[in-house]
Design brief:
Layout: H1 2-16, H2 32-58, E1 65-66, E2 72-77, E3 91-96, E4 98-100, E5 105-107, H3 109-112, E6 115-118, H4 126-132, E7 140-145, E8 166-176
Antiparallel strand pairs: 1-2, 2-7, 3-6, 3-8, 4-5, 4-8, 7-8
Length: 186
């Protein structure tokens, strides 16, 4: 009987050891949330761009330019001579303010103060980082940013809420060229 019991246990162990079955996910995601999020973002961007274009149409005094980065701007002060535009690793000195599209001041330039910024290195919001690259020393321009170029859906956790398009007047005061950019054209 003992032999049969050992044989039975041995057979049970042999047949109970199969290949491990892979675990199945508890929830299966269809990707519909991401698709809906992308659709909402596109609709929001389209709405904000329409708001900005309406502002541009009403403002016949300024000559607005469309940037390749997805925002619009006009020069308040423009240098007529061809000058150097900041490149990666250059350090610039600038001032700027932040307003709503309707012109309500969120952060005046006096409160922000002089800002020293290393091109493509510092933590400024995307639109401002790219706007600096369009100016030359001594130039000042006003920029209209959709929220995706500003602080986006998060805001800044203070005065700028979620999905707020911004207006900013930016003055580029000085450019310190990085040594790797010295041999490049002026």
């Amino acid at each position: 009987m003992r032999k049969h019991g050992c044989l039975l246990i041995g057979l049970l162990l042999l047949f109970s050891c199969g290949e491990p079955e892979p675990r199945r996910p508890v929830q299966v995601r269809s990707g519909s949330f991401m698709k809906a999020s992308v659709a909402r973002s596109k609709k929001l961007l389209e709405y904000e761009q329409q708001q900005i274009l309406e502002i541009i149409q009403r403002d016949s005094l300024q000559d607005y330019h469309s940037s390749p980065f997805g925002f619009w701007y006009y020069y308040e002060t423009q240098e007529d001579t061809a000058g150097y535009q900041p490149k990666t690793n250059d350090v610039v000195l600038l001032t700027y303010n932040l307003m709503t599209l309707s012109g309500d001041t969120l952060y005046p330039a006096e409160d922000i103060g002089l800002v020293q910024h290393a091109i493509d290195k510092s933590q400024l919001f995307p639109g401002l980082r790219n706007a600096i690259k369009l100016l030359r020393k001594g130039e000042k321009a006003t920029f209209l940013f959709p929220s995706s170029q500003g602080y986006g859906y998060k805001g800044d956790n203070h005065k700028i809420g979620s999905n707020i398009p911004l207006k900013s007047s930016l003055a580029l005061l000085d450019i310190q060229k990085d040594s790797s950019n010295l041999n490049k054209e002026p």
